[in-house]
Protein 1
Amino acid sequence: MTDRLFMEIPSRLKYLRLASNFGLNAARSMFEGEDSDQNHFTESMELALNEAVTNSIRHRNPDSPEASVVVEISLSPREITIRVKDTNSPFDSEMVPTPDLDSHPENGYGIYMIKEIMDKVETSREKGWNILTMSKKLGGKQ
Amino acid sequence: MKLNKEILKTRPVFSPEGRLDASNAGLFKSRLNEEITAEKEIVIDLSRLEFLDSSGIGALISIHRKCDKERGGLKLVCQHDRIRKVLELTRADRLFDIYDEAEAAAGSFLK
Amino acid sequence: MKAIITVKEKEIDWFRSLFRSCHPLLMQICKKPFLEYLVDFSILCGCSEIRLVTDIPVQRVEDLYGDGSRWGIQLSYSSIRETDGFDEVLEKNSGFCRNTTLLVFEGFFFLHYDKNLDYSDFFRSLPGGELKRCSTGRLSIVGGSPENRSRPTAESPLLETTPLSSVADIHQLSIEILTRNPERYVLPGYSSENQAFIGQNVVIARKAEINPPVMIGNHVQIHKDAVIGPGAIIGSDVIIDSNCQIVNSVVFDKTYIGKHLDLKGKVVGENSVVNPIDGIQLHLEDEHLLSQVRPASPRVPFLHRLVTRIHALLAMILLLLPFLCCVSILKMQKRWMPQKQSVLINSQGKTRKLSRPRIAPTGYIGKFALLLSLDRFPLLSAVLGGKLSMIGSKILEDTGENREKIKEYSSYRPAVFSYAEAETWPDENSEWEIVERFHLARKSIFHDQILLIKAIVNRIYTEDNP
């Protein structure tokens, strides 16, 4: 059985924390009780969502100050799927180059970190919306 | 984000509290850049941070580079797995000298 | 008392260049990860906290061991830089090192000890300093009671070091521990007889030979006429195909060893065979000879069955009309040869009668029917009923020879299309069995979809159809 959670925020950095807490708490609701292994999972989901929403906000079209970012989270007993949607210009996560980590750049880590944390990452476009879909199963990288 | 400052072994130790993310990384960077004009050897203690993202890492890297340029240095203090994992994920842990105690980090400049 | 284990990238680089997918700290010696030997020893000495200090990514180690609660200790992690020396390591971990005697492992080396001896008294009596050293590392005590300087040290129990700088070291160490003193360490697997450590879910064909001393991990398949040992250390999730010989060799986890491969005195992992004597590494390009396997997730079977049934239903819907039209015409033309066969549907020998008609590959309708694989249409109902898969093993007729064959073929999974058809391997000789075993070891929903499409497309382009 899959539960769906939904949040829409204005595309502004002041609401970033709200979105990333949403991811953290959604992931927490998959567990009963608390232990350190769960913390690693839930904190990773918070980080991945934070990076995705940051990207959406940062690349907002300056001519659309009223734009919003939509976060949809699907929870099943052993898997979480997070979709981040925005109305920015078309975006393909496959086209983002992996940062040269050894040269320690100041930017460009976002998608790389999402791909390292999540099991699957895909981008698509539907009716003018970019959709970044990322999912992770409980129990380690598949 | 609250930024605490104390002096240990004659070096300033800055302890950001709360979240260091895209919403405040820019501000954090400018505040530290101001401090570096006076003191070039500094310690940033990440132990009171609840959350650090890639923007925060970018700010730390930028500050590190500025300290290096000024012939100073930046040392980090990290005690919690959550923050350490973000440093490791971005391989920033290979760039910084990371200590588990602020006193040792500040004292390392004296050697 | 606490322990610090510090390893640097430059010390383990030689291993990473040979076996990319295995984390060096999880490198197995007699099927036990290297790091666990050090943890076991630290606990034996009375350490309640251990810190792993390194300049290599430890995410995989952390995912596996977490905070060390499985051992009842606190395991933590910290980063150092490549240029950091002993003093810098202690300085960067000053909080951890404060007010305690510290056992420090530096470098990439194996520590020989005996779990049956008492080390805590010995270490309590030490004043501090270097204890043991080898070319790739050393063991030291930091702290230690100053009073101990004036007291005689307790007699040292067994404590020796062996450098880990090449594959030869892993090989020699593994075989030595297995053959001479496995009782010194906590080694995984139970011992059903002397010098044989066998894990869980190990399937050994009746005609396979096991010669102790051997070590076999979990979820291992050993097919007929394979000879394992003496001196074989087989990891977990390994498939050893028929007629292999593995003697005085180490096989890492998740490896597929193809038919007729003889390994004597080798270290094998991924698609590499390394000769410990000269360090020469051979990459085998043919995945059917040697390759990495990904163990099937236990949750997949249900989803797999569902996807299979959906495929069969879709195929039935799409092809029903062409089937009815073509069959009527072909019957009139006497190009449709109905045939009912008793076939084996699992490796336990269960049978079922299936309709396996033949279509003469002549005339437009005949060729069109074969293009759409309509001769396989009657098998779709068996797929819906869960008796067949869409892609898998070639369907074997119920004959004496085939019954014998499937006794050693526990992964037999008969299907409408075979893996061999997907790879266009000839049907006449038994080479298709290699292909099947190879793919059955890798079965996953995605993998099977690709092969199903390949099999269907190959049929379209094949001149003579069975």
Note: The interface with chain B takes residues 13-14, 16-17, 20, 39-40, 43, 46-47, 50-51, 54, 57-58, 101-102, 104-107, 109-110, 113, 116-117 of chain A (CB under 8 Å).
Protein 2
Amino acid sequence: MSELQRPIFNFHGGLDLPGHKAESTSAPVADMPLATRFTLPLQQHIGEPDEPLVKVGERVLTGQVIARSAEYISAPIHAPCSGTVVEIGEYAIPHPSGLQAPCIVIDSDGRDEWAELPAPWPNYEEMNPAELRERIRWAGIVGLGGAGFPTSVKVNPGPDHPIHTLILNAAECEPYISCDDMLMREQPDKVLAGLAIIRHVVGASECLIGIEANKPEAIAALQLALEHSGCPDTHILVVPARYPSGGEKQLIQLLTGREVPSHGLPAEIGVLCQNVATAAAVADAVLAGRPLIERIVTVTGQGVAEPGNFRVRLGSPMNQLIEQAGGYTAAAHRLILGGPMMGFALHTDALPITKAANCLLLASQAEAPEPPPAQPCIRCGRCAEVCPALLLPQQLYWHARARDLDKAQDYHLFDCIECGCCAYVCPSHIPLVQYYRYAKTAIWSQERDKAKSDIARRRHEARLARIERLEAERKAKLRKKKEALEAKPKGRGTDPKKAAIEAAMQRVAAKKAAQAESVNTQTDVAGQTGNADPQSPEA
Amino acid sequence: MEFATTTSPHSAATNSVTRVMAEVLLALVPGIIALVWFFGWGVLVNIAIAAVTALLAEAVVLRLRGRPVLATLGDLSALLTAVLLGLALPPTLPWWLTVLGVLFAIVIAKQLYGGLGYNPFNPAMAGYVLLLVSFPLEMTRWLPPAGLAEHVPSFAESLRLILSGGLPTGIGWDALTGATPLDQMRTGLDMNRMIGEIRQSPLWGSVGAVGWEWVAGFYLLGGLYLIWRRIISWHIPAGMLGGLFVIALLFNMVDANTHPEPLFHLFSGATMLGAFFIATDPVSAATTNRGKLIYGALIGVLVFLIRSYGGYPDAVAFAVLLMNMAAPTIDYYTQPKVFGQRENGDG
């Protein structure tokens, strides 16, 4: 097959990690039964949070849009079940800090009655990309690999960036996670259909499917489906299982040999990456008119009795999902959302499953050991050897530690993808990624402060300028008036109207003077005021 | 259910500073055995004195600085410094000089700068240079290698010599000690003798000097082990040996009578020890890959220049300390291009 002829390139650094995929791939994907209560955070995507469209007490149907935002970078949220909205308020969401955020809470009526859905578009090839994008947008699809960026925005890179290569990111390089693997094994046709739709939307001339060599079943299933589908110029490219091959930039380099520019987007080199589950969701949205209300979640680790993959309605409580996977074992020590390298630890299981939740890792003490106390950096350079972004992690660490944020940026802090390779190999057990996160947030907050003070400064300057301008205008007006008045005596002859008035007034004054010959004093006053008025007020 | 949280990544390789240091110590073992074989027990006595002094000094300073004592001693860095310094000292050196050198290395060169990871200079070499500059006579009293020596001191004699300065009965300093090969070469050249003449002496072996070349060979072996175990990268040793080789070769090609061949330089003195164990001390070396090559190569060139034209027969300690000063600058100018800034093969 053609994939054998294409070269696989290499990326710098990375780690060969134990995969731990087998634990969760022995059984097919199981459906998690409908929960009784669903909690749906209003922001499950990168961008603007949604506004609720429903009220407490309102009945909703499965698939009904219950929240959306008018902003471009956003994705609507749909009811995952039929039932009643019981509350709209602040609830704990899956966030590293245990943050609370606005959520819609729905009690299921257990009937799972669906709302009226838009028409399926099996002949999507006849639709234009804008219509398809609008459908993807309606369906609330975001990057399901964990990023959560609205897909409708991602598939619209704009006319400046024509896309020639569409990459399906099927690497799933993080240990333990297997939801994409299982999806490809069980529904390869849907994945390929989604890929074909996205390809039509962006107008790519070829599709590359990048998949790690540790998923032979998925590769075989995709190959079979590909032969049947007859998708032209679509190639399955098997890459070595080396973390982080599934990093967007790393996968693009592996498959095309090209580097996405620093601080740039893949679209700048004509490439677009989409995750497997995202492609399947696009297929659902376009071919079946179904919105994104469920996803496959891997529940694994030594802390759970029966690891596996589950099809879960969004908003389902994690603790019920864990029950579904046989419940906790005595070894359960840490709850990680995502994988062991980039996932974040949760302090409780009383949280909802969101769009970006790909894996719940119930790690044992051995799987996620307590980090030993950090020792001083001995500058051994192992971190630089494994850094896929070719950074100098230890210099970054020194500068982040010294709060020298400018220097940290000089050393390309923002090219760090937080893959964790450096911290993984560090002999001094320094939580390097944490330092980089700290430095990044410190810079962001500095920039926010700077933007704020810039606005304040601009306001202040604008106010000063306005005052100055008004003052200048006032002075100019006065000057004009003054000039006009000073110019009057000379210009009097040229203005017959004014001359006439003047003459009339003089006549009146003369008349008055004649009339009041007897009352001398009053005549003088009247004559003065009459003359003084049109003349300079300062006089 | 509630859980404790930590930050990602949640798993780590089983690596530690202790392991790194222990591997380096392990890699030194063949070289130390060869040293003891050729130069007697005094080597081990020096190492033992240095080790005890280093651990005590580090413990006291850590205590004064309010740092965890046992955990820090357990990183083995003080022990490694002591071993590196101890094996570089002549096996006849009075004990208090070893103590002085180690105290300077641990207290001044390492802990006063902030301890492990913060010292700009290689502590062992700082201690060595202090002793060499202050006590040149004592620091050059090496024993001739076994087989050439009139008298090889026993363990008890070595101990007595080092602790009390007492010579074995009936043997004077001149009979006991001899100049190092580098010293002999230097003295010979200063007396306008040709390399060929100088090398007539039974002191010389196939590439370096008898005994010394074997020690160097075992250091090389240990160094290759470290590269294989990924404790050090190949860049600094390659740079240093390459730099020294190339410049020695150039001069040797110009005038082979006054400039020994490059292999002599590689297998004499502290070249191998320096290339794999001293210059590679990550704390005080350059850290970028290109930087490491430059750093190593310049050490090699300095070693040659000081050996050939400087005031001391060997030069590794001086060369390393000089380049320690240049390491931050080298790092600054050799930053690698990050992902997305390298040349894109537009295809």
Note: The radius of gyration of chain A is 35 Å.
